UniProtKB/TrEMBL annotation:
It comes from Taxus chinensis (Chinese yew). This is Uncharacterized protein. InterPro entries: FAD/NAD-bd_sf, Trimer_LpxA-like_sf. The chain crosses the membrane at residues 314-338. Keywords: Membrane, Transmembrane, Transmembrane helix.
Amino acid sequence: RVYDLGGQVVAANSAPTITRLAEELEDVEFEDMKSHKLALIDCNGGQFQDLNVQTDYMSIIPLTMKLQAIVKETSNIGNHAVSGLLADPAPEFVLKNGLQSIPKSVAYGYTASGYGFVEDMPYAYVHEFARTSMLGKIRRVKGGYTSLWEKLKMRMPAEVFCRTQVVGIERDSNSVRVGIKNRETQEETTMEFDKIIFSGATPLVGASKVYRSSNSTDPSLVSIADEAVVSEGATLESHQVKNGMLVLGPVRIGSRASIGPFAFLQMGTVLASEAVVPALHRTEIGQYFVKTTPHSEPKGDDRDADMATSTTHIWQLLGIYTVAMVSTLSAAIVYPLFTGLAKSMQ
């Protein structure tokens, strides 16, 4: 399931960064979409069905205005003001508030802007999109959204690789070698660097889907199986510092598991295959998530992951007692030396 459709639609008030970037590039133009229709076309018969998105959009305005009145009473702005109130999944939230479904104009506009599918998001994000685009023009980049980044690439002093996937990284004491593959030609090459910096600290994954940005305290301690989905803003915490001591707890994410937007996985968290962590949810340290079906029990690889987590906790416990033992032994050695030195000085 592809999440980012590349920002074919840009709402003027909800995408100020893109607008400012286009102005700085000077030769990037926007075209107004008020003359365009959003419609379904039958590929076989060519039948045209207008979706009437403008009329459809009006149905969400009363709810948006009502929520804004509530938000104004808080001292926060943006997502921080609505995250606690609108954390429910978007489809569930609109049902509770008198709408049968999210208006097509909002759902299509949200996805076409490159933000993902509304079904996977807390209503907080959908509300912010509806609010900021309600009074703004809906536009798109003339020549296609990709042309914006192609023009940016030409102006940058460094070499920029577009449509390129990192397929492997090798390190030794002298350099770092990065294997890349061009998605169009499928050609693979290797580049060598003195050092390399990962922006965003996103863990390396196989065929998994990592939606937009995620944070990891230590990517080397995070393993993500194939077809897993890590949503926007998710935090994967694989270590902590407690009382001056570093405590490690690898995070393991099973195949086809899903982590919702801005979820927080504490160290030692293990997700079994097809397990789901809801949006904005915070796991407990060492928590084991299984697929939400009746009578589900860990089997096969899941049981191995559970055993690995238990082993991790045993090592942490041994580390705590080892530090205490070394401290006691040091005191036992230093005290006689100190008392002997004090007596000799009298």
